[in-house]
Amino acid sequence: MSTYARRSARILLLDAADRLLLIRSLHISGQPDGGHAWFTPGGGIEPGEDLATAAARELHEEIGLRADPADFRHVAYTTGHADLGWANGLFRDDFLLHRVSSHDVDTTGQNDLERSHYAGHRWWTAGELATTTETIYPNRLANVVSDLLTGQIPEQPIELPWHH
Q: What domains are defined for the chain?
């Protein structure tokens, strides 16, 4: 088993209009002038947490959504090396699918680090994901979302390319 510098639970949150929620984050290493990029909600798994419990906690903290971890479906992961300043080494992000009819994002539960990087959110259609020139992580997210929306839910999580 690999030792990770950081392991994260991230959520592919789809609404009834088949849109995916992404968070715009500032201060991204590797982007011009710190730049920005779009990410799925989620974050680090705390000691003693399982993947789904961490995802539920992160959804509540970052966007104010309470969800039952039993409702999540593990659909993808990505792993690779990165040096983000605050962590360096092997990283792994696991992506869990969750559907809602709708959700109004509430950021009041974010911690200081999340607030310092948060630069808004947006619900994206599959077509917008496929054609945008914005930086979106993970790579191939548009393909994954398109597959999920057509009912192609993998029996085992699929591996996505690392993005750093």
A: 6-159 (3.90.79.10)
